[in-house]
Design goal:
The complex is a heterodimer of chains A (113) and B (113). By secondary structure, chain A is mainly beta. Chain A has strands at residues 5-7, 10-13, 19-24, 31-37, 44-50, 53-57, 64-68, 74-78, 87-94, 103-104, 108-112. In chain A, strands 2, 4, 5, 6, 9, 10 and 11 form a seven-stranded mixed β-sheet that branches. In chain A, strands 1-3-8-7 form a four-stranded antiparallel β-sheet, with no helix packed on it. Chain A is globular. The model of chain A has no long low-confidence stretch (mean pLDDT 93). In chain B, 32% of the residues are buried. Chain B starts with a strand and ends with a strand. Chain B is 0% helix and 52% strand. In chain B, the strands form three sheets. In chain B, strands 2, 5, 6, 10, 11 and 12 form a six-stranded mixed β-sheet that branches. With 113 residues, chain B is mostly beta strands. Classes of the chains: A mainly beta (113), B mainly beta (113).
Chain lengths: 113, 113
């Protein structure tokens, strides 16, 4: 049973560029959330997707956008990258069983130079 | 705004010592409470959770946590730590009927043999 998978694991971009991160949820899960974890901080909620729509959003600018596909996989897009966007981006999935447990991937580490 | 505070940023213990990690949250309404753990090189995983009922909850690997509503606290405990407990521990809350998790900044635990 595959867990949450994310790609790429590491990437380096320069300021002003755009990045797309990808996530496949755990088998059987239909809800995907994205979190940003800066160095020395806890994860911060970016947004959540369910049924291909953004259901909740955290306090992040419009430069952060996402998408969910019919197979429940998801993408996180960040435009006009800033140095402060350097972080570990975590994807988490949940299912209809509503246990409240999030299953996390290992993350995509983004470095913006 | 809702927040989670973890007062211990870095804890160093010898094997067999007892552990207590503090967690306080700020929100007056109904919350669900979680402790997640991140072992070196691994993804975040759920240690234990509290939704309702007995305020003393037991999780995996001998961990337990006590919800004290009057103190807005959800401290994590383990009577006797092992070297394999070396990890980063995150306390998190979500508001009742939402999926957005608010994390603390984490506590890094190092256990020496």
């Amino acid at each position: 049973d595959a867990g949450v998978t994310q790609s790429p694991t590491h990437l380096i971009k320069t300021r002003g560029q755009q990045v797309t991160l990808r996530c496949s949820p755990k088998s059987g899960h239909d809800t995907v959330s994205w979190y940003q974890q800066a160095l020395g901080q806890g994860p911060q909620f970016i947004f959540q997707y369910y049924e291909e729509e953004e259901r909740q959003r955290g306090n992040f600018p419009d430069r952060f956008s996402g998408h969910q596909f019919p197979n429940y996989s998801s993408e996180l897009n960040v435009n006009a990258l800033l140095l402060g966007d350097s972080a570990l981006y975590l994807c988490a999935s949940t299912g209809t069983e509503n246990t409240g447990e999030l299953f996390f991937g290992e993350g995509s580490r983004l470095t913006v130079l | 705004a809702q927040s989670v505070s973890q007062h211990n940023h870095h804890v160093i213990l010898s094997e067999a010592a007892s552990l207590e990690l503090g967690c306080n949250y700020s929100y007056g309404g109904t919350v669900n409470l979680f402790w997640y753990v991140q072992y070196p090189g691994q993804h975040l995983q759920l240690l234990l959770k509290y939704f309702s009922g007995d305020p003393l909850v037991k999780g995996i690997k001998g961990f337990e946590a006590e919800f004290i509503k009057s103190k807005f606290s959800f401290n994590l405990r383990k009577p006797s730590v092992q070297w394999s407990d070396t990890a980063e521990y995150f306390c998190a809350v979500n508001l009742y009927n939402t999926d957005k998790l608010i994390f603390g900044t984490g506590t890094r635990l190092q256990v020496f043999p």
